[in-house]
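Fresh eyes needed here. I'd like your take on this protein's tokenised backbone:
***
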Amino acid sequence: MVDIYVDADACPVKEETIRVAARHGLKTYLVSDGGIRPNQNPLVELVIVAQGADAADDWIADNIQKADICVTNDIVLAARCLDRGALAIKPNGEPFTENAIGMALANRELMRGLRESGEITGGPKPFGKSDRSEFLNRLETTVQVAMRQR
């Protein structure tokens, strides 16, 4: 069975993920350091980890298996999931892939350096309706791919 792991602290598509998972009868783990409401769906498990910068990421990376799915914006977590044979997708629907993860990690470091030097300020564009729609379409496709891999 395919499981879905959500890096839930700042995830804007928790409910959408739960809906898609429920349609396919998939277990979903919402992993957070707190502040997330429990869900009544028996296939949804709320996992509260100790507070810390990487506690949720570590729990997901330690528990995710081949062909499971991770929903995250965190490039390092996505890389760890891909290393375990899992699939990873951003909340805007963009997939993390083996071919692109190295470049994404390098770009992350470059951007961090530019932010620290003050050359770049601000963050990503706001999350919008089109991002949510793209996520729903891409998650459906990702679930189908994962189920074939199992």
